Amino acid sequence: MSRPVSRPVSRRALAGALVVGLLVLTAVVVVRHGSRPATLDARVDAVAGTLKCPSCEAESVSASNAPIAQSMRAEIRTQLRQGRTPDQVRAWFEQRYGSSVVLVPRSSGSQLVLWLAPFLVLAGGAVLLLGRRRVRAQQAAPGPSRGGARASSVSRPRLALAAVTVIAVGAAVPVVTRMSSSGTPASAATPPAGSARVSRAAQQDMGAGDWADVGRSLDEQQDYSGATKAYRHALRLAPGSASVRIRLALDLVRDHRAGDAEPLVRSLAGARGSSQSAALLVLGLAQRSQGEPAWTGTLRRFLSLAPHHPAAAQVRRLLASRP
Amino acid sequence: MRGRRAAAVVALVATAAVVVVLMTAVGGASSGSSRSPIIGHQAPALAGTTLSGASFRLRPSPGTTTVVNIWASWCGPCRNELPMLATAATRWARHGVRLVTVNTRDGPVAARTLLKEVGARHLLTVQDPQGRLAVTWGATGVPETFVVDQRGVVRARWVGQLRQGWLDSQLHRWSAQ
Q: Is A75 near chain B, with CB under 8 Å?
């Protein structure tokens, strides 16, 4: 008599919980994707809004006009152009400024516990409250009966289901939110050196200076192959730029492609001008890498033109140690 | 009654602790020796063009301790500390200490003018017009000074106008003298 009554109730409760859970998850995903910033400026602003200005009183990098906040925005812009995700950018800042610089919680580790704590407390409270009300209702009933015992046995799975639903939804919200905002799991926050590349979408509005910036940044990460690609983009947009030409040639030498470097700097090394000494230095290094005997003469010319250049001492050592 | 009082005291202490933690987290950096997440780790990249137009890249060098100072000509405390830094650079050079300054969010003309004014033209200064080098080093403002040991590990950081006593004590500790 009791079973045909309790089964439909449990199924209804399960279906209801599933529907609520799915609706919440769908809403979170739709809201996150719908509000995803489209332009680079908006993406910079979105990431800057999640970082704390380190020299300000409770202000985000996005809201602050402090010089360091402006510098941080410039760094965010460069890293997003290189194709890094917001999580990767935040992790980069966290390495330098500590965890307090990040204003949004992570979807892993101890911060996830903080996110889940309110939901867990809420679920626990709901379970206790409902259980207590159920016991009181049973106590108020006129004497023990089969029906009372049934009510008690039916209430437990329903309460457990309610608690599990609340916990599952609570856990899913931060995880789905963070994954939809970053596109990558938190464990991939720090990319290996040299993995940074410029995304196709970001390439469209980049000028020669931007590409040169990307090249310099990849230089700093000692990703010479990536840097040469960036400098080639810069040179295509500004073919007359001697500094980009010299940087490209130097990175080609570092990337064991000295043969490609030589023609880039040969004309600059022969022409008088502010770039001549740097061009001679790179040309000499390229010739040396290829075993051309002319390298000593080229580097001697470099030394005569720029005896106080920071590389001069090293060049002298190179010349002194030649076989 | 006793239990209630004890609970009230515990709540008060907990609230005070939270307030102190929040104030520490929210407040800006003040002058002095300061912890930084980069201390104890390899020095971040420091590469760029110097004020004399040459390229520079910081590389660990056996026997050489490096002081990295981040400054700007528009910053008062930076102007005040530059003469002391210039003297220290000369005095400590024979003990294998090199001083690299990073001129951040500034123009080369203003930087050169100030260096000339204070007799610090010989300082090796890397240009950082967008402030990206300062951010790479985790600087919270200017001036800030870092000491990097001979293995290229960041050992100490000073926020604000530098004190000679602090710099000398750090260099005594980390240089190869």
A: yes
